[in-house]
Amino acid sequence: MGMQPFAEWYPDSPLADVARRALTGTLDWCGVPGASEQAIVDAEKRLGVRLPKSYRDFLKVSNGFAMPGRFIDILLPVELIRPFGQDNEEIVQIRRELVVDPVVEAFEYHLDRAIQVSGTPQMGDDFILLDTHHSTALNECDAHLYSRVDIDWYASFAHLMAEKATFNL
């Protein structure tokens, strides 16, 4: 998606203002006010899943985040997160066709139900996805950095963000 298209498609979003300021070089903070508990609960009801603690905690601090100069440059506000398959049917189908064993490769086989928390990239096919159907830690779920080449696994959203904080997403 990129920052400019995000600002144009969602002009009333507080994150659009952050994107516009990032594009003009007048940005001092890349976040926006946090999401309310009710907004998070509403998203969970809409998606039919419980969001992981580390991601809920992030949303309470900043309901979306701009990352200028990164490959993935927008973490979506809670109102815009959605199942990955909703807008990426072609990617889902290609990945599903590559699966040899749906039990072993369950995430790839069920990629459509992963929760997309990053904006559609301006270039490439990189996304941050939450696998709310698989967890290796209490109150968390697996997080993945999806790219056309690979799908990297992390024990949680917090683990992914901590590791990638110094690396261009």
UniProtKB/TrEMBL annotation:
It comes from the Bacteria. Coiled coil: none annotated. Residues 34-163 form the Knr4/Smi1-like domain. It holds the Pfam family SMI1_KNR4. This is Knr4/Smi1-like domain-containing protein. The lineage of its organism: Bacteria, Pseudomonadati, Pseudomonadota, Gammaproteobacteria, Lysobacterales.
